[in-house]
Amino acid sequence: MPENKLVKPPCEKNRKTLLERTIELLKHRDRTITYEKIREATGCSDAFLSTLVSADPPRNPSVDSVQRLYEFLSGNQLEY
After folding, report:
1. Tens of pLDDT along 13-53?
2. In a domain, 57, yes or no
3. Helices (runs of H) and strands (runs of E) counted in the chain
4. Is the dihedral of CA 65, 20, 50, 37 positive or negative?
5. Is residue 64 part of a domain?
6. What pTM does this model have?
């Protein structure tokens, strides 16, 4: 029986993590999408959103929060 091995995609220089892309979307969102609207749609607090766009964002935030935020800002649902 063959061994189960994880296949990793080839590394790409310009590839971004989900967190990096989410922060980028948050920083460059349409300004009519306020923290209040984001909070109501995602449950993410204003403090969490502020830390994401700060000069020193958290390195290991909750995956659930980042995913909800990404899906809201991008309009795309992540599926695995």
Report:
1. 678 999 999 999 999 999 999 999 999 999 999 999 999 99
2. yes
3. 4, 0
4. negative
5. yes
6. 0.79
